[in-house]
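Quick board copy: two proteins, each given as sequence then tokens.
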Amino acid sequence: MSITLQPLQLPFLPRGALSEAVLARLTGADSGVDHLALAREELDRAESIITSDDVQLTLFTLYASAYGSLPYLQADLEWDLDLLATRQLLDGAFERELRAAVETPDLPELNSGAVAAALFALANEDAGPSLSRYFAKHATLPQAQEFFKQRSIYTLREADPHSWAIPRLHGRAKAAMVEIQADEYGGGRPDRVHAQIYAKAMRGADLDDTYGAYVDVVPAITLASHNMMSMFGLNRRLLGAIVGHLAAFEMTSSIPNRLYGDGLRRLGYGEEVTDYFDEHVEADAVHEQIAAHDLAGSLAEDHPELLPDIMFGAAACLTVDGWVGAHQLRAWKAGESSLRERRTA
């Protein structure tokens, strides 16, 4: 069944019958489609959920409804039972595929020092292709713009996926999470909110800083990286995974951001564009210690049952972000774009 969407409302188009039906429902153009049946059909058909354009765009849209990040999605449908059932089905399939694909290390001893050491060891073992090193020395201006577009899916909403964990944490872990997130949100200064600094960088690079402006051109794997964070954050049963994800995310941020800043300066960009990356060189060097010891380590001590998911979340962060970087690097080294071709309605 084909559904007529309002093209001027949406900066991106559906990528299959499922995302078309979900977008229609959330924008008020629903015509009684059985979303759950469509989801089952797509899951049966897809070779990989992680790289399925239709599934990943559907998940992105459903999560965006919860975030409120796309204003044209109707707020009164956030708790629509049919859509929630569809998201639950897709969440489960996505999580199972991730758990099968991600290699999780052996569990450390149950104390904060051992957990932190295991997380740092995991981050240090991440020896995949380095997008940041390539970017620092070789990236062209068009590749830099691609990089900004790819990163915009998460970074214009920076920190939001992890903030879902705050009300679910207690004591030491909660205090550590709030300390990290307070910095991400500017420490009380609206102009220093990291998402806003990134938006400023995009404007400085002559790009559109409207959230969702580049959803149409990013590949499924980029959406999957953001969707994984959203899934970990939104599902209370995955509290350990979102904490582990944040720990790994912070541990692998400082040096790459220095290299991205160096690459942007080499290309002639000024402080307006490099500010975001320079900010993260110092901030994340502090955050990684808090995230490893005070957040992940203390959570594992207080809730030993969450340790397996803490390590899984960290490994999933490194693995999936490695896939995203490898995709971009392969395309650039081959002289190709890492983006999808923008379609017209």
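And the next:
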Amino acid sequence: MKAKFLPYALLALILTTIHLAEAQQPKKIPRIGVLFRGGPGGSTLEAFRQGLHDLNYIEGKNIIIEYRFAKGNSERIPDLAADLIHKKVDLIITSGTAQARTIQQVTTTIPILVVVTGDPVGTGLVASLARPGGNITGFSIMSPELSGKRLELLKEAVPKITRVGVLWDALQPDNIHDFKTTQLAAGALGLKLQSLEVQRVEDLKGAFLVAVKQRLHALVVIGGGIINFHQKRILAFEVENGLPAIHEVLSFAEAGGLMAYGVNVPDLFRRSATYVDKILKGTKPADLPLQQPTKFEFVINLKTAKQIGLTIPQSVLFRADRVIK
């Protein structure tokens, strides 16, 4: 009779051994790549890490993050992307339409999460906001729609201006839309616009010379890899030449720019952690709608206004979400 039960006992022993072996197998730790055209500074990465932490992802414990920075050199992005693929990352996070497109040329299978993109449909990055298709999804900053408003605020803050320069990174496809929208707004406001486009770091010096030669009254500064990476240099130029400026990127006002109006980018990076979580759990980027921003901010730096000898009208100050004193 005992022999009759031996197979069952043996089966139970085998199953127990299998379960023990599976329990001893280390779980695969997700590995994600972060690839930026600029550098590691700023509050965006801190916000991203906080978003991951809120979802119980602890860097170095149950998630690995591979950081790669092109430091303003777009030509490095394909090699940096290839390096991340060699590291077998589960997804790549980037910022900017041009960067996302470059990475997609390197891989069409690894999910790409682009956190800051202006017009992803118009630039052909995705098929639609609701159904992106392919291996890209992310968060739009809707920058073209904000460009006209940015110029209006500048005109209200400095009513006497007539000649305005637009400093922009022409390598970013979204910025073309930004510039064209700014042109339309300039015509409606009776302002003459001067393009100060840059494609390389070396172009900044030329843009500054044109601004001085043309005796521009103010600047609109549109973000981009070169612009953001050389924030200090641009802000120093504005102050030294007494040029009122409004920026697309909020951190410029926080760092000493006169004004900024735009999307709360750190908030987008914090929210992007939810998409990282979904992708790591198996959701395809093609099935994740491109999200649009929920927070817009108008920031005024009164310290800078004092430095350049400008008095901001009280009506404009009342409209600000934050006033830096």
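Board note added afterward: The chain has two domains: 31-140+265-294, 143-263+297-324.
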